[in-house]
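Me: I'm a chemist; would you kindly supply a protein sequence with its structure tokens?

Assistant:
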Amino acid sequence: MSARSSKFLIGLFVIVGVLICAGIIIWVGAARLFVKGSQYAVYFDESVQGLQVDSAIKYRGVEIGKVQSIDVAPDYRLIEVNMKIDLEGDLHNQTIASLKTAGITGIVFIELDRIKPGELANSPKLTFKTDYPVIPSRRSEISQFIADTSVIMQSIKAIDFKGISDQTKNTSLAIEGFVKGKRINHIMANLESTSTNL
């Protein structure tokens, strides 16, 4: 085989290899473009610690999408999470999002569920325009538990334990005075006399 045909075959092999690699890269990249699904945004008014890009989006436990990006919202108060969801329908009017933790591992995902009456009242209000349809959010169970515990503690602090203690002491003294007093002795004597007459 001549040196010239050998160089030609090597060049042809390199060109075909490069074209195959480029074709694979384009095919894989294009496949991601044609994946069904819609972009949505959700805004949380709490820490999203543990939530990451590519974290799962679940609808009642079934994975339906992934987190695309996590940023601070334009108002610097909320956390913006952009998601790609592979579920058809009017999700931003029918579902509500919350942060959930998978067991004790600390892996956080977003759980979507049907909106129940009154839940939208607690969803953060937006004061800016959004790029995608917005799914409302509610507090996570842990955040709600901490808030409820704080309310309970404030209620306990508001109880007047000293006043209750003083009132109980006064009532106890009044009962003791009544039992040891002359009037109870008179009532007991009358009761004894009535029972002997029967």
Summary: The chain has a mean pLDDT of 83.
